[in-house]
Amino acid sequence: MTNTQVTLVQIDNYGPWTVTPEPRREADLQTLQSRLYADISQFVGNRGGYVFFTRFDNMIAVTNGLSMDDHALLQESVGNRYPVTLSLGVATATSPVQALADATEHVQDAGSAQDENRRECLEGRIVDDTSRTTEDIQIAHFDVVNATGNYTDELNAFDTFIEIEQGYAELMRHMRYAHDSLSFFVGGDNVIVVCPDLEKPDYEEAISHVKAAVDVTMQVGVGRGENAHDAGYAAKHALETCRSDGTRVEFEW
Amino acid sequence: MTNTQVTLVQIDNYGPWTVTPEPRREADLQTLQSRLYADISQFVGNRGGYVFFTRFDNMIAVTNGLSMDDHALLQESVGNRYPVTLSLGVATATSPVQALADATEHVQDAGSAQDENRRECLEGRIVDDTSRTTEDIQIAHFDVVNATGNYTDELNAFDTFIEIEQGYAELMRHMRYAHDSLSFFVGGDNVIVVCPDLEKPDYEEAISHVKAAVDVTMQVGVGRGENAHDAGYAAKHALETCRSDGTRVEFEW
Amino acid sequence: MTNTQVTLVQIDNYGPWTVTPEPRREADLQTLQSRLYADISQFVGNRGGYVFFTRFDNMIAVTNGLSMDDHALLQESVGNRYPVTLSLGVATATSPVQALADATEHVQDAGSAQDENRRECLEGRIVDDTSRTTEDIQIAHFDVVNATGNYTDELNAFDTFIEIEQGYAELMRHMRYAHDSLSFFVGGDNVIVVCPDLEKPDYEEAISHVKAAVDVTMQVGVGRGENAHDAGYAAKHALETCRSDGTRVEFEW
Amino acid sequence: MTNTQVTLVQIDNYGPWTVTPEPRREADLQTLQSRLYADISQFVGNRGGYVFFTRFDNMIAVTNGLSMDDHALLQESVGNRYPVTLSLGVATATSPVQALADATEHVQDAGSAQDENRRECLEGRIVDDTSRTTEDIQIAHFDVVNATGNYTDELNAFDTFIEIEQGYAELMRHMRYAHDSLSFFVGGDNVIVVCPDLEKPDYEEAISHVKAAVDVTMQVGVGRGENAHDAGYAAKHALETCRSDGTRVEFEW
């Protein structure tokens, strides 16, 4: 059974900071946001977790394997090197959405995202070390079948983007409402989904749904593991099987 | 009249590179993609342009002010510091979508995104220096009215993300099909749109459309300039007027 | 008694890479070297270690607390994100210089720094986890007394640099030959030294030596710990005592 | 005749910032310093200049080709993305040391490096655009003959470092006092020197001096150009000639 540890990473008072005393150059904000995300990706990723950029001022991470001390260190390091600070909420649940909701509440209880007095909140609970199993995380790695041939090499780059985006949006809503799952676009034509215990029919149905709704054909590799990296890496291998065998849903176990 | 110079930035042979000889750690791919984007944002931004991460392996930039030599230097610098290389297509048109389509064709004509022999293509035309005017670029900076109060401080972080994403998707498709415009989510609840010469009613209609379709309320500041930074910075100021006056559409001229 | 775990980090085949097929832009090499160092600093630092830039193609780290798996992960992550790869040699000894010599030999035995076939060597031994104590590392943090008043605000920036550099060079050679210690300039007027078990008279003598040889007056805070961060942070606090009390040598225990 | 434009880049109030309210993690300071330097290297380098890390809180750049507006943009961009700010002094002279001295005075006149009220000073004069020639900059790129064979593959990494460092220190002092030149270690076994109009005998003498003083054998390639990149790139090519022909001093013109 899955036991997903989710961390909500929220930049403190970011909206006001971006326009005080004057609006800041957009290119600089993009650079700051991207490099902050990249740093968090290294920190979390080097401990077996995954973090997704989401809205950049709010980022969602799967952090099985990270302790509260690890979270505190991340906060301290960012506070030493950036002109902004982070608040972190941590929670665990069988359902990824439930874990994320609890993590969000920890941060919301500490104060508004635009409360200038709320700084570096750190609240929540991690998965107990002795309870961890290799079934804690289920990750599904979707991509669009032959995106390069069907879109990238054929349409203009924005219309290709619209197609990919529609596929992502449809999948994201379906997986959240039907399966309590969290889906994230990770570049190219790839979507990584953090799931509870789902079965092959669930994935086949998701793919059919997206095909029917927006005419985008997807395939998926699914993996399990003790942490996001283990599960996600297994999912990547399963996806390679889809590519080589021409199948649509592959499990790595 | 607008005269938008658009550059398509495409990483050469990226899909195959990410899985050769084996799939690479996802956290490392995210770090690489984000830092590459951040570097391009600094290079383009320091010359008055804007670049949007789009799909990360394909990025769209508004590059009025950058010469072909500037583009070549960007390619060279990235080639010296990353394990991947970039192909660039450049084009100009009154219509942003048309410019982007022509830029895309330059890259497609050089070879497939997954053609391992196509490396560092650089093709296209820039806006003639003597033809540049302060009306070349029109940028609209949208955001969601009181996103923090309505969503961020109230819903779980993924459901907030779904709301923002739906608003973006609706706006993006409307602006592309009705107005040949290119819309990009830039973090938080912000969307920056690269437009041709649009009028107040066009923006009021776009906002109504989004409200009616997905029940997300947006506001917009619009600016013009000789380059993306000038237009975008003016748009940010206009958006501040929306925030302080409670209006929905403000032009900075 | 100290038990220093030292890692030599050497970029594979770097010299040839910088000039093949043609010399690369110097500014890009500087950017690459600095960002690679910064990444290693985060990776090692987040695990309680310290890494010093040294010559940038060869970097020396104090890695008590990092396992061989950690070293392998660092190699993998760098290999995924940079156009170069790293070889790592790891060794432990009471004497920092001895540990560094053994670590160097591991890399040299694998092949020349400019052997294009030697890639990602990983050899050596870490401190046994059960043997670790809070006296394993002794770190001394030196700085120049009132550098700002005596030099930075008075001389031109290069002559100030010459003064600081002379102080560093004299201290570095003295500490290496008299005390088997490894000294590293870390910016400003600061030098961090990795020592075996030294006593107050040893530090007083080092300071006198530097004063007599090049007329640069230094002070030092000394700390001990299970890893470089613990020892180094204690040393920083001791140095603050020097600053506030006007003393020259302070121990944090 | 040379006409060197030098910029002193000084972080405002850095010393106090590093220990307020408490000392900061050393690994984070190293990361911050290195990434800030890397960013400045890209900004300056992309405009044909060179910047050297020097002491990290004080960096020296050769900025022929950068206007005062460029300097202001660099300041603004850093201020938007880092927790520190920069003060910049700019000056030009036939003598590199004189230009650096004048640049330093501009910053010193604005206030102490540790004056918390001195922020983002920008003072000085650039080379007049109409006066620029391809002889404005002379750059000499030295390296140690067969450093890999003589040191890197033979000695422990710190003893190799000591040898390289001694060669650098001797060269640096000689070039400054005998020739008003500014010398910078740039990694590996490389030293880049910013010179006035020097002749072959001057370089032969410098090399003899270093050999006699510390028994380190160096070679040098010299180039000239309108900016640091042009001169430096020519110097790199000349150095390749030394390597292939076994000579000690080569001019690229």
From TrEMBL, chains A, B, C, D:
State whether keyword Methyltransferase applies.
no
* Function of the protein: Catalyzes the formation of 2-amino-5-formylamino-6-ribofuranosylamino-4(3H)-pyrimidinone ribonucleotide monophosphate and inorganic phosphate from GTP. Also has an independent pyrophosphate phosphohydrolase activity.
Q: What is this protein called?
A: GTP cyclohydrolase III
GO molecular function terms listed in the Swiss-Prot or TrEMBL record: GTP binding; GTP cyclohydrolase IIa activity
Record field: catalytic activity: GTP + 3 H2O = 2-amino-5-formylamino-6-(5-phospho-D-ribosylamino)pyrimidin-4(3H)-one + 2 phosphate + 2 H(+)
Q: What Enzyme Commission number(s) apply to this enzyme?
A: 3.5.4.29
Query: Is Magnesium among this UniProt entry's keywords?
Result: no
- Cited InterPro entries: GTP_CycHdrlase_3 (IPR007839), Nucleotide_cyclase (IPR029787), Rev_trsase/Diguanyl_cyclase (IPR043128)
Protein family according to the UniProt entry: Belongs to the archaeal-type GTP cyclohydrolase family.
Instruction: List, alphabetically, the Pfam families matched.
Output: GCH_III
Q: Which major enzyme category is it?
A: hydrolase
Assigned keywords, A-Z: GTP-binding, Hydrolase, Nucleotide-binding
